[in-house]
């Protein structure tokens, strides 16, 4: 196995872009993988393409249209509005059933073909939107399952797992890509690049994190 190579699950958003540049600092070769699952805002795929092209990262976009068919939600249906706040005692309607399970499984197949087991994903248990597939216990469980399923040693790496959004901004700043992440990524559930719509849960989390980053680190 080649240990100086890694594959990054890459959406073109704040977290995955921060992880991409984190990986570029640590691995000789970095490959980015995005997914077309029929999301409403294909602009995120354009964003991912642009960043990879600009920074010379090998990039794959895999077709996962079946996920759209199986899991209708506010990120895949124009007639479902994104919850502005997380509902109490239930998952937000922006949760896509099985998304991280499938994404990481397909990325693992590609990673093995590329001769590496290093898989990097930007999930976070400390600062997430109520998604069960962002939890550390899920990642550890899937890591074991992938190893067993392909008789291969995978290492799912989660640089953001135990930090909040303010420290994710701090990581981007430390990596020298703060302006890139602030202006060139797309995190907004309504498909607006940069600062986004300012109203969806993702934008609120991003904005509050940025303000806390500035306060915490005197920026």
Terminal CA distance reads 42 Å
CATH topology: Rossmann fold
Mean pLDDT: 88
Tally of helical runs: 8
Which parts are unreliable, with pLDDT below 50 for 5 consecutive residues or more?
A: none
What kind of sheet is the major sheet?
5 strands, parallel
The number of distinct β-strands equals: 5
Secondary-structure-derived class: alpha/beta
Give the overall shape, derived from the CA principal axes: globular
- The percent range for strand residues is 5-15%
What percentage of residues falls in helices of 4 or more residues? 40-55%
Rg, please? 16 Å
Protein name: 7-cyano-7-deazaguanine synthase
GO biological process, one term: tRNA queuosine(34) biosynthetic process
Binding site for ATP: 10-20
Organism: Clostridium thermobutyricum
